[in-house]
Write a sequence for this structure.
């Protein structure tokens, strides 16, 4: 079992920054691949970024490349998503998800991830 708790609820203006945190408890989080998904109003849930268990491999959706950075702190059992130059289209509920397969690869498919947080809402105003 892995419990995930996101934080970083925010209402920010276009161009500003926000950092989301995903704190984990339960099974060894350091062996999990972790991803951030965004569910925007009227759209399907989409992976915006992911990081492998080692931290050496990362994935970014084209829409966030160069603006978002994913990282992890093994000592704190936490994964972060630093979001810079935010745009109104970044608005949505952001979910943290964990993959316990111990795969060395990084995945963007939601079906890969067994554990999910409750989500945190991000609103970017124009």
């Amino acid at each position: 079992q892995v419990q995930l708790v996101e934080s970083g609820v925010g209402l920010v203006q276009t161009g500003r920054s926000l950092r989301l945190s995903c704190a984990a408890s339960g099974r060894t989080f350091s062996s999990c691949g972790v991803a951030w998904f965004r569910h925007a109003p009227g759209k399907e849930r989409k992976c915006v970024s992911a990081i492998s268990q080692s931290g050496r491999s990362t994935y970014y959706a084209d829409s966030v490349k160069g603006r978002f950075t994913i990282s992890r702190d093994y000592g704190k059992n936490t994964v972060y998503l630093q979001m810079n130059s935010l745009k109104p289209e970044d608005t949505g509920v952001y979910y943290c998800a964990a993959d316990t397969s111990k795969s060395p690869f990084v995945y963007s498919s939601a079906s890969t991830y067994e554990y999910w947080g409750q989500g945190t809402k991000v609103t970017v105003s124009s």
